[in-house]
Specification:
OB fold (Dihydrolipoamide Acetyltransferase, E2P), about 150 residues, 3 helices, alpha+beta, rod-shaped, 6 strands
Length: about 150
């Protein structure tokens, strides 16, 4: 869970549109891994809380997936799957009996592709389980008042 600060742009029908600014560091901009390296803003749709108005500053609690799970699924699992596929192919010699290297390479590639497909499916399921962003606290721009921590579900 990470907390982000944003500004309410509009409130309609119990939903608030909040603009969240992401400010990246120099290291982040040099890395180039993220598509949005640099300072960016994003609009987030959240459930409104009583008394929320356009222009209020809010702090949002945003659920984020584990980086370690992602690294494991993207890097570790495919490599291990390829190696396991090669070992399985070395033990099975009724498929392409005279081409051992080709059998190991093709079976390793098959296991590798199955692990990538499994990682994609897991990612889709995990994204659906993420909790929606939630307002934690509000600061009214006119009054300068900060309302206390909101309880889960009010």
């Amino acid at each position: 869970m990470k907390k982000e600060e944003g500004v309410v742009r509009s409130v309609t029908n119990g939903k608030a549109l909040v603009e969240v600014n992401y400010i990246s560091s120099e290291e982040c901009a040099r890395c180039g891994v993220c598509v949005s390296a640099g300072d960016t803003s994003r609009l987030v749709d959240v459930e409104s809380v009583p008394g929320l108005e356009a222009g209020d500053r809010v702090i949002l609690k945003i659920d984020s997936p584990s980086i370690y799970k992602g690294l494991t699924l993207i890097f570790f699992l495919p490599i291990v799957s390829f190696i396991v596929g090669c070992i399985v192919a070395a033990k099975v010699d009724f498929i392409l009996p005279e081409a051992n290297n080709a059998r190991m390479g093709l079976t390793g590639l098959f296991f590798f592709l199955v692990s990538i497909g499994s990682a994609i499916l897991y990612d889709r399921v995990a994204r659906k389980k993420l909790l929606p962003p939630e307002i934690v606290s509000v600061e009214n721009k006119e009054l300068g008042i900060t309302e206390g921590e909101y309880v889960e579900g009010y």
